Amino acid sequence: MKSKSRSTFIRSLSLHAVLIPLAIIWLFPLWMMFVFATMPDYGIFSPHIELLPSTYFVENLGNLQADTDFIRALMISLSAAMIYTFLSVLLTAMAGWALARYRFFGKSLVVGIILGTITLPYFVVVIPQFIMVAREFRLANTWVALIVPPLFNSLGVLFMRQAFSMMPSELFDAARVEGVKEWQIFLRIALPLARPTMAALAIILFLHSWNNYLWPLLINSRPGMMTAPVALGTLIGLTKVSWGGIMAGAVLLTAPILVVFILLQRHFIAGIAAGAIK
Question: pTM value?
Answer without folding.
Answer: 0.83
